[in-house]
Design brief:
With 446 residues, this protein is an alpha+beta fold. Among the domains are: 78-144, Gyrase A, domain 2; 246-446, no CATH class. It has helices at residues 2-28, 35-64, 78-82, 110-121, 158-178, 194-217, 250-277, 287-290, 301-311, 325-340, 348-357, 359-379, 383-395, 411-428; strands spanning 88-96, 99-106, 126-132, 138-144, 226-229, 236-240, 280-282, 295-296, 320-322. A four-stranded antiparallel beta sheet has the order 1-2-4-3, with helices on one face. A three-stranded antiparallel beta sheet has the order 7-9-8, with no helix packed on it. Helix 6 runs parallel beside helix 10 (325-340) and helix 7 (250-277) packs parallel to helix 9 (301-311). The longest helix is centred in the N-terminal third of the chain and has 30 residues, at 35-64. It is elongated. It starts with a helix and ends in an 18-residue tail after the last helix. 40% of the residues are buried. Mean pLDDT is 80; it is low at 1-10 and 56-71.
Length: 446
Amino acid sequence: MREQRLSGAALMLIMCLLPILIFYGLLLFGITINPLFVLLILVLCCLAMFHWAAGACGHHTAEATQHDTDEEPIPVGEGDIEQLSGVFRPTSRRQVGQALVIEGELLQDADEAYQTLKQRFQDTNVTPLLQEDEGQQPRVVLLPGRWEQAATKDRSPWINLALFLATIVTTTWAGALHQGVNLLAEPSRFTVGLPYSLTLMLILGAHELGHYFAARAHGMKVTLPFFIPVPFALGTFGAFIQLKSPSETRRALFDVGVAGPLAGLVFAVPALWIGLGMSDVVPPSDEPVAFHHGTTVGSSILLAGMAKLTLGEAISQGHVLALHPLAFAGWLGLLVTALNLLPIGQLDGGHIADAMFGQRRSTAISSAALISLFLLGLFVWSGLLFWAIIAFFIAGAKGIPAMNDVTKLDVGRSTLGALAFLLLFLILIPVPHAFWESLGIHCPYL
């Protein structure tokens, strides 16, 4: 298994860097590159990214439910049911596969009940789960076998380091290319791409380390971040971590989900704020030429507010911003944060919704959000269609629920979750054109 993981990561590195090596080799021999050939290479890179990421997610799910023995699990017996005495009063039970689902009434507070059951079953070959049924009533699920919770020896981080360094290379390449510098022709000018590269890597790294440290704080097993380098466009498809054990409570699920976006915001907001001060407002006469290298002030409520505070009256002279690399990285970091906060499947927002609303309600919310994302991608902004496809194929499936999925979140966490979803709307929702003039934004549409 270890060799398979190493070969998979090596394959991804090769597929990411292959286009650069091919382009460089062809340029050395003065060979003109056919655009169709370039497109084919880029498609192969995308397929490699999705295949590896999907495999990682599948490996994560498999390990999260892995038993600590390869032997056939021992079926749940009557003696195991007797362990519920004084904690849960059974009224009915049914067999679902190898699991025994017991419905009834809790005799203790849910937190206390779960800890009692966990203690009673710790020396057995049965894992107790405290879940909600379709009517949001508590039930106990007894699974044969033990879910891994104990700490294991950390694996060598060289794969994480190799992907991190490769992503610095590809984002530096992309950052320089955004400024009109081809590092294949002028490698000595690599510093041109560093402001974008280092800022974006700092934001993405903070995001994933937020998840990492929150998971460790709750005693969960987790890997270091895996960065995904790509040698075109933005230079990366982001990063991810792998959780090796399920969350024990909704609190843990929420904390791990929300910690990443909050940690990323700590660096994304200052980067955008400082970068906007170094950005230029494009005069209306130059907008058709400059639009592909910038963004409109009103494309986001949050961006409009920050642009108004940093650029002042300048935005009344034009509505297109030519973003400084620092601002572009900060804005990209905010977009990544917002897209991760979508309440879909295994995205951060999906975990937050699971913790706030429970599995049944969050599943309905996830379906509605995914459909909305597809519709927005088709009729509003085509860029969202790309993220909708990624969310559907890689993060669309629901994750494993918390082992105690009955205890609700406290008021503080629920409020923080609501603020996180409010932030999602502030970043993704554009300012209606009718309000542009009242906000002092130049509006060519009215």
